[in-house]
Design brief:
The chain starts with a strand and ends in a 10-residue tail after the last strand. It has helices spanning 13-23, 51-58, 81-93; strands spanning 5-10, 27-28, 36-41, 44-50, 69-77, 97-104, 110-115, 120-126. The protein is globular, with a radius of gyration of 16 Å. It is built from 3 helices and 8 strands, in the order E-H-E-E-E-H-E-H-E-E-E. The chain folds into 2 domains: 5-58, 2,3-Dihydroxybiphenyl 1,2-Dioxygenase, domain 1, CATH 3.10.180; 69-130, Roll (2,3-Dihydroxybiphenyl 1,2-Dioxygenase, domain 1). With 136 residues, it is α/β, with parallel strands linked by helices.
Length: 136
């Protein structure tokens, strides 16, 4: 099996699409008014599913966390430490909740955390080198 994508179950589709598209730069694949929306970031499929639509499709009810969601994080990479700081400022100015301001960790990575409008954690980090060289 290959990882094809990653999905979030969302309450407010329009708000979440606008956040991921306009604030974080995800490319949208269809209209905002559909029940399943495909976005792409750097070749990875990112899906937004309407909670009520998914429940109807599966004929089940689910529980959803309110507030910050500590079950996973979505990690984004930028090439420089300065870009971490700028991305954090831009995201917060455009509706993200600040979780951890940018800081350089003892292991050498500069990182920060924000939360999307529904409380999902997003890390923005850098090793201060281009993405293709970060694991070398």
């Amino acid at each position: 099996m290959r990882l094809d994508g990653f999905g979030l179950f969302v309450e407010d589709m329009g708000k979440m699409i606008r956040f991921y598209r306009d604030v974080l730069g995800f490319e949208i694949r269809e209209a905002e008014d559909t029940s399943n929306v495909y976005l792409v970031k750097d070749g990875t499929l990112f899906l937004l599913y309407g909670r009520k639509d998914f429940e109807k499709m599966t004929d089940r009810s689910y529980e959803y966390i309110k507030g910050l969601n500590g079950h996973f994080e979505l990690a984004l990479y930028v090439d420089t430490f300065e870009e971490v700081d700028a991305a954090f400022r831009n995201a917060v100015e455009n509706g993200a909740a600040p979780v951890l301001k940018p800081e350089t960790e003892p292991w050498g990575q500069r990182t920060c955390y924000i939360a999307d409008p529904e409380g999902n954690l997003i890390e923005i980090g850098s090793w201060n080198k281009p993405y293709d060289e970060k694991d070398k």
